[in-house]
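Researcher: I'd like a candidate sequence for this fold, 459 residues long. If you have to choose between options at a position, lean toward the conservative one.
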């Protein structure tokens, strides 16, 4: 007999499984109200637990505030609460009947640009806040540029603190026009402007009674309805191998399967595929997905991103962790010369000639930084030529030579298989986050003569 609590849990799970997931990030200048907006979203959508709200109310009273400071729902670090700013990326998970959300509240300071890159790297939407009194400022343009670099599909301009400009429509219209023109010039595909007051809740969850001149959606309504779809039919399949499964048991003496998560596209039984970087070819003989029982598996005819499955091939060929299985007709070209835009996230600089490890999907190879052609100035999108090194929060172009070929897509085509990390081989520290291919300017021509290192890293 099923208990009432079990039935409620099952119904809740069914409701969540029926909804889509949206990953989004917030960004803006210091004191534009990012954390207050997030707190208002959580509070007004009934996504805050009672004890959390009580803790915020207590902290607010201890600071001499009569009303609860909703920004404290996300500014979890003591340093953030003491300074009233966001330092780290705060992740929050919440759900409404229409959609599930993973939210990254990113810092606004220039020195934390790398944190915004971290938060927005997997986001499908970015909410950029602007103080209605200040309009579009340097940091606003910087955040728009980062969103464009990361190919975030949707950008929301939230013009905040409209209550401090008497809810004036001309103020909103002027800011929206300026930002939209700038973001469009960067190649941002979709921009939606919404006038809000995070402090009072205007147009955050509920429509504002003070701005009857605005007929668009509230922030939550837009988040719930923005299309989150990937046309898998037009997206080439990419399957990075995570693990080789060979039970060699009495029940499965000859089973050989390749487990992993489909990065993009659709895999079908019978599809001719190529294993990269070796170039060996075969055909998908079977696909095993997780079944209904604990540890059970079921055979399916097709699977799609982002499902985790085990693929069986018709031929007994050498496949191991780090290999990429792709349709033979749409296989990426392998290369040892990687040209990319990187955001440097480590405190130690990235220099020309530096030995690094390059991690791409499940594959990690040795590499050398051959050149740093330019550093991007986000203020005006100008290129500073030959900087020699990149320091923390810098964004620049790099040329990297790898010890082994990589099946790397352009980041413009795939945010998953077009991205990589540069890692310090000495201690495993992440140095830079990379995006293969063009950024704002055309990529430099590749070197035609491979460089030779005189200390054993000859690629």
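Model: Candidate sequence:
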């Amino acid at each position: 007999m099923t208990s009432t609590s079990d039935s409620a849990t099952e119904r809740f799970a069914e409701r969540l499984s029926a909804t889509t997931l949206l990953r989004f990030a917030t960004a803006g200048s210091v004191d534009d109200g990012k954390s207050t907006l997030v707190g208002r979203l959580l509070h007004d959508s009934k996504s805050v637990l009672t004890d959390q709200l009580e803790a915020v109310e207590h902290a607010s009273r201890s600071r001499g505030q009569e009303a609860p400071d909703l920004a404290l729902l996300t500014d979890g670090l003591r340093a953030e609460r003491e300074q009233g700013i966001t330092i780290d990326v705060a992740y929050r998970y919440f759900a409404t009947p229409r959609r599930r959300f993973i939210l990254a509240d990113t810092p606004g300071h220039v020195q934390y640009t790398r944190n915004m890159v971290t938060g927005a790297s997997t986001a499908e939407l970015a909410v950029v806040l602007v103080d209605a009194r200040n309009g579009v400022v340097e940091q606003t343009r910087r955040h728009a540029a980062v969103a464009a670099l990361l190919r975030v599909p949707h950008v929301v301009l939230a013009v905040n603190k409209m209550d401090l400009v008497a809810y004036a429509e001309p103020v909103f219209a002027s800011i929206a026009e300026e930002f939209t023109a700038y973001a469009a010039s960067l190649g941002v595909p979709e921009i939606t402007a919404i006038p809000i007051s995070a402090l009072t809740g205007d147009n955050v969850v509920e429509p504002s009674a003070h701005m009857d001149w605005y007929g668009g959606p509230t922030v939550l309504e837009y988040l719930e309805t923005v299309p989150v779809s990937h046309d898998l039919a037009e997206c080439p399949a990419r399957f990075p191998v995570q693990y080789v499964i060979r039970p060699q048991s009495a029940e499965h003496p000859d089973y050989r399967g390749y487990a992993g998560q489909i990065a993009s596209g659709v895999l079908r039984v019978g599809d001719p595929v190529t294993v990269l970087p070796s170039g060996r070819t075969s055909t998908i003989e079977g696909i095993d997905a997780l079944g209904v029982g604990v540890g059970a598996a079921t055979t399916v005819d097709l699977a799609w991103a982002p499902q985790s499955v085990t693929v069986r091939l018709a031929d007994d060929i050498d496949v191991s962790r780090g290999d990429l299985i792709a349709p033979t007709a749409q296989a990426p070209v392998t290369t040892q010369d990687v040209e990319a835009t990187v955001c440097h996230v480590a405190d130690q600089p990235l220099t020309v000639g530096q030995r690094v490890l390059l991690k791409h999907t499940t594959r990690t190879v040795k590499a050398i930084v051959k050149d740093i052609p330019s550093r991007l100035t986000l203020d005006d999108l100008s290129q500073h030529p030959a900087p020699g090194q990149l320091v923390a929060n810098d964004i620049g172009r790099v040329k990297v030579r790898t010890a082994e070929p990589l099946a790397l897509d352009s980041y413009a085509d795939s945010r998953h298989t077009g991205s990589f990390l540069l890692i310090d081989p000495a201690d495993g520290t992440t140095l830079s986050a990379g995006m293969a291919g063009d950024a704002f300017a055309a990529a430099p021509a590749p070197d035609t003569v491979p460089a030779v290192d005189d200390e054993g890293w000859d690629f």
